[in-house]
Amino acid sequence: MADCIFCGIVDGTIPSEKLYEDEMVVAFRDIHAQAPVHVLVIPKEHIPSIQEVEEESGELLARIFSTINRLAKEHGLADRGYRIVNNCGEEGGQTVHHVHFHLLGGRSLTWPPG
């Protein structure tokens, strides 16, 4: 999609701090970090929402979550804990319409904060 910021990151026309990339997924630092570690993991294929993920997407989802596990270990989060977030739709807080997962960690993420 020509106007999708994440598609621009995938094709290299929009700069990002990529932490991982393979033939199916890209992971990069969120420029509006909400935690000391805040990484976005996205499929290279443009899928607007998790609502459009089908049963045939099993391999892609496995790759996304194995990438999240790898990054959690690399950033020292695996033993301490972390949060994985996917926002779906307008009321769910989705602002970029390209499936993405937030990996957050490096501090306590309990609610309420404090």
Task: Describe this protein's structure.
It is built from two helices and five strands. With 114 residues, the protein is α+β, with helices and mostly antiparallel strands. It has one domain: HIT family, subunit A, CATH 3.30.428. It has a five-stranded antiparallel sheet, with helices on one face. The chain is globular and about 35 Å long. The model has no long low-confidence stretch (mean pLDDT 94).
* Fraction of residues in β-strands: 15-25%
CATH H level: which superfamily? HIT-like
| Tally of contiguous helical segments | 2
Q: Assign the CATH architecture.
A: 2-Layer Sandwich
CATH topology grouping: HIT family, subunit A
Instruction: Please summarize the sheet with the most strands.
Output: 5 strands, antiparallel
Radius of gyration: 14 Å
The coarse overall form would be globular
Structural class based on helices, strands and sheet pairing: alpha+beta
Write a compact overview of the structure shown.
Residues 5-114 form the HIT domain. The chain has helices at 5-11, 58-74; strands spanning 18-21, 25-29, 37-43, 83-85, 101-105.
Layout of helices and strands, plus pairs?
Layout: H1 5-11, E1 18-21, E2 25-29, E3 37-43, H2 58-74, E4 83-85, E5 101-105
Antiparallel strand pairs: 1-2, 2-3, 3-5, 4-5
Key terms for this structure?
catalytic activity; five-stranded antiparallel β-sheet; HIT family, subunit A; HIT-like; 114 residues
